[in-house]
Records
---
Amino acid sequence: MKTFAITTALALLTSMVSAAPAPASPGAPYQIGITFIGAAEGKFTQYFFTNGYGSGIYDPLSVSKISNPGGATCYFYGIDGSFTVVPSGATVDVGPPQTQTYGYCYGS
């Protein structure tokens, strides 16, 4: 009975894990890694689809620059109302520096 219960529990856990959607892999051809840069060397990178699909940004870093390695033009909204356009291959100042909340990119 104990073996049956353990086997059943493992089968249930396995099915739950395999049913979860796999996250998109960073660097896939349809994504671009955008780096958000703040003061004192603070920074983070988040991946965005290049088909215009928007994504929330949940890092609280006050961003002063946004860097785009190329492959898409991206658009970002800040918590205090900023709107920043970052062309393909550019690094752009965010003025005034602020936490970013939402962004989207279109492939070029």
---
Amino acid sequence: MAAATAGKRIVFTGGSGKAGRHVIPYLMSQGHKVLNLDLVPLDNPDVYTMKVDLTDSGQVFNALSSHFDMSEYGNASLQPPDAVIHFAAYARNMLVPDNECFRGNVLSTYNVIEAACKLGIKKIVIASSETTYGVCFAQGDVDYHSFPLEEDYDVDPEDSYATSKLCGERTARSFARRFGVDIYALRIGNVIEPHEYARDFPAYLDAPATRKRNAWSYIDARDLGQICDRCVKTDGLGFQVFNATNDTITTRVPTVEFLKKACPGVKITRQMGEWEAPLSNRKIREVLGYKDVHDWRKYVKS
């Protein structure tokens, strides 16, 4: 495993969305240059947004071999991207009919990965989801198989959104093997923006049962930027799946004590940290060197 330090040229899909509008500024603060591919502009004067239909493979190939902004016509030659981060998607069920959610998410992910690999881009990061663990969009009250939720868990979702994300992971694994590139899939937890702590977390703490579908875990949108940066800077891992969450559980009660009461029939398979998030980020801490910054307790009185 090698760590790359110089600023990279990154194509980011879906950068105008809830997560992207925080991740992109973090990436830029680390010296990277970013081109945003989206259907709506990002409200950031330093980032050029190209309107692209990612379900059209021709548009994707063209966009990934494009200039990053108009000023680059003055360069001696076209500079290719160093990395692609693919976040664009229907963000959940019920935005469109289920078959369109599945079609759009699977096809766009395939197109982005295929184009990047065939254009010689060696680093690809894709957004998978916490929903793959099978509870978030399950019908009725469903338990997890075991805790903690880690990357080797037997994921078995029943909904179209989460299934589309699993198809993305399988596509990533196939192309990483075929082309010998790094493709890292992030199983992203419930994304929290800075203003949402004061607005939402008191209710979460008062009614923890409402957070079962998110496994009492979350990811601060700014810390997700750090995770993406660590993915870009860490080379040589091939295909990998990483849970992308913050360190701690969103309850007033320590993790094991809480889980034994909330899910008494669910086994705990290893010793867990006192406040460890049930959707555990141990792998990104140990493999990518992620350091938690925006713990919810900094912003909410528990």
---
Amino acid sequence: MASASILRQIVAGPRQKHPEAGLDLCYVTDDIIATSGPSSTYPQRAYRNPTDALVKFLDYKHGVNWAIWEFRAEGTGYPDSEVHGRIRHYPWPDHHPPPFALVPNIVASMRDWLKGPDAPIGRVVVVHCKAGKGRSGTAACSYLISEEGWTVEDALQRFTTKRMRLGFGAGISIPSQLRWIGYVDRWTKHQKLYVERRVEVCEIHAWGLRDGVKVAVEGYVDEGRTIKTFHVYRKPERINVDADAQDISEPPSATKKPLKESISVPDELSKKATVESTEKPPLPPRTNHTGSEEGGAAVIFRASDPIVLPTGDVNIDFERRNRATYGWTMVTSVAHVWFNAFFEGKGPENNGNGATNGVFEIEWDALDGIKGSARKGTKAFDQLAVVWRLVEEKEEPHLPRLITEPKLGEPVPQMKAADWKDPSRSNLAALGKDLGLRTESPASADVSKASSLRSATLSPLSADASTVEVTAHQPEKDDHT
């Protein structure tokens, strides 16, 4: 028992430990508890909160007035029956923001439990993901902002103060999750309207791109439980901009066309894309790059066929590889970024009728790192612009779909729980992108230096879309969510 307790303290790391319970949990407010994901099976319960110990504490402190909200697409780690069936499921993958369509139901269901007409005084909400940090913090702060009127700054500061030990960083540190918190604030201030639309990624423009970089477009499927790779750009889909015709290592001027004007873009996007891309911060000058694949200072990725995602949530994923030897490749960069087209098109500020196209821009240092950390490896590019547009829904009458927050007392949908006993998800514990050596797959020769770890492990990388699974139980020093 002593060794298990020590192991739990090591895994909890920078997170606060409740002084009375001796468990990895905290009271964010009087009625919101955040905890790491409990487990009923070994070896997980040796380093996570044992489910029976957590239930015993909650029963002792709150009687029947507690319920769990869990966000684990990798599986809860216990059956619903072990928590008296008082559990709500809204799972999505570790280290990522939620599909935004889940947010209204998450906060409404928490509100109903705490403030419903039949709710007794003293009820509490218990939120957990794997570490009880990123996903749990995103849900807790979303509730405080949308239902309690907190500011973004106050909600984030409260979660950090209560969840983290002093000097051990922010409670929510992943840039895309912080971007989602900003989306929630705007959603709250503008009638809580969200319109779900399919999105086409038209082009991706990269400045200062190094060689050997694989770029993929991903999105959510399976109600948000799974991330699917919809396209991996291949060499024929890369357009290297002629530096002699346009030196884009410097910001555009009145006498120089911006990058998006130097090529043809879809007619319906050209005006907006051109206007929004003319003001760019100075970028570093072109540097000499190593490797056999020429990356160039500026590259346009344009797919041969349309890349259409089923929701407004878009993820752009990057890996940089250098060829090693004897069938191996060295991965030197791993990063990704999520954005939502409805919010980037200012949908909340326009009564749900935002722009039908736009450009999302970001710099390398602002991307999400490896497994929720800030670590990304060597720089793969300087700046990125994603040209997107909404898809005309002539053949799918159920879209666009207006999503509003259910009113108090109305039924609130919840999602299907991930199968916590599925051995295939448990086997994914060792997966997840990281730096270092990987085996090289001939199927990916037209993509970059080597195949993706996720794709190579689950299925051979091909031109077809592949489904990307999520990581399961595993103590990670980089595990921030």
---
Amino acid sequence: MAGQEGLRARLIVTFYANSRPSNTGPTAVAPSDDSFKSQSTACSMTFSELLAPLVAPASLTLANYRTLAPGVFRSIYTITSPLPRPEKFRHHTSIAAFEALHALEIVFDLVPNSPVSSARPLKLAVFDMDSTLINEEVIDELARSIGITSAVAAITARAMNGDIEFEQSLRERLALLNGVRADVWEDLKKTVTIAPGARELVDYLRERGVMTVVVSGGFAPMASWLKEQLGLDHAFANHLVVSPPTDAFPFLHLSGDLSPEHPIVTPEFKRHVLESLAREHSIPLSEALVVGDGSNDLLMLGAAGLGIAWRAKERVQREAPQRLNGVTLSDLIHLLRGQEDSG
């Protein structure tokens, strides 16, 4: 998006108070734009004044400011070319200082050629599954069923933080699961829990006609179950080999191997799913939302018009285009609503 000439865009800046009611602590009081004062420099300044030099040489005009919900506020700016990338703001030291000073998380979204009052253009939403749409890491739940939780969880944590390659970590963890009963998924479906706000967010997207997709480095039986539970349009995940009964395991069981007949859901494959669906349905990537929490989500987060690292691992919080922490995925609805749809 950077360097596009002759464009006029909306820069949507959404402020989430850390003390908003969906988190913990007292209800935040809605400020006016001028009440956000930065004390990181000798002269106090409004957020608009703080932002202006970061978008230069583009010009910036505050078009609208409003409270969306208790503890959630939004400023909409019109901005002229050359258009910067919104992650430029999110990673700037002055923005980080402002967030820390006011106990806020700020999400930046740049939307070209879109009226100030309209909803954010969106036609495709792609989600990670584990620790995003559901609360658990399914592979850790599988490990718990055979008593090797610590060994598998340690590899999972290293993978999600990006300390080892995702495919390597997946194969290492799966090798430890050799012998798990093939019908274990039925037990997991009774214990896995859908994340708070996931149903509300997906329902909102479906009402708007947005294509919804889960693409997971987890496993196809659980991704397909989640697709049905939430009414998603597509589900992509890893397929495991099921072995026949043996002397050691006299029942159908997982072999600990990935199926060679299906693609492995690597970070590159996740991005491929996003780009392929967008191309197939003539959807600009600028009109795609991606939500995930692990390092294997970073490529697809970076490819989307709005990529949100949700309650993410430390490395992902640092590197993702945008990030948000909270207790309910319905917080993301505030990023998408138009002026008349707010509240």
